[in-house]
Protein: Bacterioferritin-associated ferredoxin
Amino acid sequence: MYVCNCNAIRERDAHAAIESGACTVKAVFDHCQTRPQCAKCVCDIREMIDNAQITMSMAAE
Structure:
């Protein structure tokens, strides 16, 4: 599934960026070598980052 239709960023691309250390929306776009266009995806990417951080902190406990 696409997270960002404008830049053809798929969920797996965003997850790969986050797993590589991207902790901001900008870092995810940088990892994908693109920039936000319409910004409709920003909230979804932010939620993916937040969920990954929660999962990582729970795993650390």
User: Anything to note?
Assistant: The helical segments are 11-19, 25-31, 42-60.
